[in-house]
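WARN no homologs supplied; continuing
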Amino acid sequence: MTLTTWPKPFQYFKDVRIFLITVSVIISLFMAAIYVLRYVTVNELLIQTVRHEATSYAQLIVLTRHWNARYGGVYVEKRPGVESNPYLKELGVDPDVRTADGRVLTLRNPAIMTREISELARKENSVGFHMISLKNLNPENRPDDFERRALERFAQGEREHWQLDRSGGKPVFRYILPLVVEEPCLSCHGRQGYKKGDIRGGVSVMIPAEGLVAQMRTNRNQIVIDGMVTIGILLALLYFLTWKLVGRLDETQKRLKHIAVTDELTGLKNRRQILEQMNKEYQRAVRTGGTLSLILLDIDHFKRVNDSYGHAVGDRVLRAVAREMQDGLRTYDLLGRIGGEEFLIASPGSALDEAAGLAERIRQKIKGRTISDRTGEITVTVSAGVTSLSEQDASADAILQRADEALYLAKQQGRDRVVSA
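OK structure emitted
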């Protein structure tokens, strides 16, 4: 079944259709790969932006803790709402001191300072962070599964750990930076068995990522639209250019087919084509029991025309005679040039007398026609041999041979006449 969705020229070139489909698929896959890479790259840039933000938070916390540890902690006045750190007593450290004026000061070591800053930060901008450790005194510092994996990787030399967590109700970007035991830390954590340089925990930062996920979704939608538009434009351009190319190839093929079956000078069927069609008409007539007549015509003294007026005039004579023949034929009569000045008419369905009458009309028409030349006017005549299919004819060549013999008789009898055989 012919694909009606393709332009007509494409229906003649199956390989071109296959080529176009193959190239279209390749272009689509190539462009899709480019836009997928763009999507991944842009998303990676968005995530890295948030990661740098989280890194800045974590490093600032570490720096603040380092400052606190250098001074052995910071004392604050114990006012209402300010509680002593109960975990310091477990380490053998009394967090409270009384001043000479009777005020009570309580120690804010790096751990509790970090927790209180985290609570303040969460109230201000929803960014949360807390300390985690595998050896923790404060249950709030107990790591979850993600944080535990991070601490294990820190022990293997990893310098940071992060992920975009979408498992909860709202997406969160989680980032963990390791905490390394330094000299000031040993005053408290040395009792837990830590040594200088050990990884004793980490700073876990959580940044709300609704905006990040929304931006990634917008990025995905925009890239999908851009990709589809780009692929559509490229495919349309490919289709258009291929269509134009195939159209030209189709026209060229038609011209080649026309040249292959057409006499270049007269525009009639050439020898091979007229003989093929004559043979088909012979087979049809034999099969159906119909009639078939052949007329073989020859321009009289054509060599004299070429010698006297030149080949250019001779060509004009051939074209003029061909036109006169065409004008006198029925739509289903076949006409072709089979030699220099020799023409063949195959007339399906015509009896011998009908074909002879047709030949006579053509002869008279050509005889009454003058062809103008710069030196004057030229008149030519034709001789014709006519014959019809008989039961004794074993092939189309047999009929043609008999028509040729009739033409020979016409020339022998003085030319400018029709002879039937």
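The mean pLDDT is 87.
OK
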